[in-house]
Amino acid sequence: METHICTKCKIEKTIDKFHKHVRLKNGYRKICKKCRSHPRPPIIIDNHKICPKCKKKKHISEYYNDNYAGTGISVRCKECVKTHVKNYNKNHPEVRKNWQEVNKEKVILQRKEYYKKNRKKLLDRNKTYIRDKEKKRIGDKKYRENNKETLRPKRTAYHSNKRKTDLNYKIKCNLRTRIYHALHAKKENRKKYYSTVNY
Q1: HSE (CB half, 13 Å, CA atoms) of 16?
Q2: By the 8 A CB rule, do 74 and 65 touch?
Q3: Which residues pair with 14 in a beta bridge?
Q4: What is the dihedral angle through the alpha carbons of 168, 174, 177, 183, rounded to the nearest 10 degrees?
Q5: DSSP string computed for 34-54
Q6: Which helix (H) or strand (E) holds 163?
Q7: pLDDT in tens, the chain (199 residues)
Q8: What is the secondary structure of 82-145 as a DSSP string?
Q9: How distant, in Å, are the alpha carbons of 48, 95, 123, 165, 181 from that of 160?
């Protein structure tokens, strides 16, 4: 009779000591019946659960709801799920893009429904974002004013490198300079700029 090694107790047993499982290659589970029959320790204790990914004990509010899970919440915490999804989308951009193109109508309906259900929440978030954006703009402006000497060489190096590598940027800068001089230069120096801007 065929035998298998239980991944939990590490003992080699005959195939009849394992439960059947259609989705697995050999048709049987990797853990034997005896090990599976042992009572498992409770996963959620005092409304807290340990995330198997980050190994941190967190409150159940920090997990997503999952109707398919026995506990009613996701296996991994929200932070770990977000990190996983972000990395997956970054490494597989074509998957998300192709799905959205194929299911355009579905995506539009989902967004509309989400907006109807969370309209107040979204409006409040937009207001907060605008306030934070304004604060950031003021902060950036103050930083630039206080660090002119540090930022000037960096800015000069950036524009110089872009002029060398980007032809469109170079043409745009040259035209901008010529137009400015054609409009603001002294009368005796304007003639050499007129032909460029058709003044």
Answers
A1: 1
A2: yes
A3: 3
A4: -100
A5: HHHHSPPPPS-BTTEEE-TTT
A6: helix 148-165
A7: 788 899 888 999 998 899 888 888 888 888 898 888 876 666 888 889 999 889 899 999 999 988 877 788 888 999 999 999 999 888 888 887 788 888 889 889 999 999 999 999 888 888 888 888 888 888 888 988 899 888 999 989 999 999 899 999 999 988 888 888 777 766 666 655 555 545 4
A8: HHHHHHHHHH-HHHHHHHHHHTHHHHHHHHHHHHHHTHHHHHHHHHHHHHHHHHHHHHHHHHHH
A9: 56, 38, 42, 9, 20
Pairing of strands 73-77, 57-59: unpaired
- CA distance linking residue 193 with residue 178, whole number of Å: 6
Task: Give the bridge partners for 59, in sequence order.
Answer: 48
Q: Is the pTM of this model over 0.70?
A: no
| Rounded Cα–Cα distance for residues 69 and 91 (Å) | 27
Domain locations in the chain as residue ranges = 3-37, 48-91, 166-197
d(CA 76, CA 173): 52
